[in-house]
Design goal:
The two termini are 28 Å apart. The protein has one domain (6-277): Vaccinia Virus protein VP39 (Rossmann fold, 3-Layer(aba) Sandwich). Helix 6 (116-125) runs parallel beside helix 7 (145-154). 39% of the residues are buried. By secondary structure, it is α/β, with parallel strands linked by helices. Strands 3-2-1-4-5-7-6 form a seven-stranded mixed beta sheet, with helices on both faces. It has twelve helices and seven strands. Bound molecules: S-adenosylmethionine (SAM). S-adenosylmethionine binds at residues 13, 16, 20, 32, 35, 68-70, 73-74, 88-91, 94, 115-116, 136-138, 141.
Length: 278
């Protein structure tokens, strides 16, 4: 189920603004498989390059909008390829880091701090359009990600492409074995991260269906602590809007050893999306 009321979206956005401020965000890379494992980085780079080359047919340099840019794991590859990138994030500290890392690309980078939906609304108002919208490890942070995607599609120009990566496949669409493997590999990593008792209490509470508005942990990775992200609903939505949409399924987990095992076994628990306006 996708939550669509704007109050829920605002609560999640505020939780993210706090969680990704510099004091709270020390362990981001440690917990971000797509940033720490080279196999996933390579996979993302191939998808990004395909999108970039396709966009070059219509615009040079391509204009890219990076939503939930963080400190730039998606922004910097596009800057390196030669794109002009607008990076949006609700956490000012993340954008400052991104600006520092992107200093070689000078005026090719623009940043906007704020809730991505509100920023997109203002872009629509001023009739800004992009060749590529990328949302890396981001959709699961947005309670109403389908409404969000619908909005993003409006500010893509002709032949525009939407690229997202690193969201959890909807949990109840995974087989039991896959779900057990995925959860088990997560626990192997999680047990080494501290805060175990409080983490277990939160999990037990959520298993009973109780979520708290004032809990940062319940609202930051909104759909990670619920039922994952609905890949089929996203594909149906894009197809219905006249896009050609491909879902790319793969395995991701935090620990490097289990990442290798899961990939070799062909387990799939995560996905990316490439959708092209046709
Ligand atoms: C998991 S990080 C991903 C960062 C980067 N895209 C990456 O893949 O490494 C999620 C980012 O989304 C930002 N974020 C979460 N909710 C947001 C919202 N409603 N509007 C804008 N940014 C948001 C967070 O501040 C954080 O930097």
């Amino acid at each position: 189920m996708v939550y669509s009321d704007s109050k829920t979206n605002k609560i999640a956005a505020s939780a993210n603004a706090i969680a990704y401020s510099s004091d709270h965000n020390k362990n981001y890379i440690e917990g971000a498989p797509h940033v720490k494992h080279s196999s996933l980085l390579d996979m993302y780079m191939r998808l990004a390059k395909d999108c970039y080359n396709e966009a070059l047919r219509y615009s040079s340099p391509p204009k890219v909008l990076d939503l939930g840019a963080g400190d730039g794991s998606a922004t910097i590859p596009f800057l390196e390829m030669g794109a002009e990138v607008t990076a949006v994030d609700i956490a000012e500290d993340q954008l400052k880091l991104l600006q520092r890392k992107s200093s070689p690309y000078g005026n090719k980078l623009h940043v906007r701090c704020g809730d991505a939906l509100e920023v997109m609304k203002s872009m629509q108002h001023t009739q800004q359009h992009f060749n590529i919208i990328t949302a890396n490890s981001f959709l699961h942070h947005i309670p109403d990600y389908l409404g969000f995607i619908r909005f993003a599609a409006n500010i893509l120009g002709p032949h525009g492409q939407f690229l997202s990566f690193q969201d959890p496949l909807r949990y109840d669409s995974l087989g039991k074995l896959t779900y057990a493997f995925s959860t088990g590999t997560y626990f192997c990593w999680r047990i080494l991260q501290g805060d175990i008792l409080a983490g277990m209490k939160r999990r037990l509470r959520r298993n009973k269906g109780f979520y708290l508005e004032d809990s940062i942990e319940d609202n930051v990775e909104y759909h990670v602590v619920r039922n994952g992200v609905d890949q089929d609903a996203i594909q149906t939505l894009f197809n219905g809007m006249g896009f050609n949409c491909r879902i790319i399924r793969y395995f991701s987990t935090q620990s490097s050893g289990w990442q290798r095992v899961g990939s070799v076994l062909g387990v799939k628990n995560s996905f990316g999306v490439i959708a092209k306006k046709v």
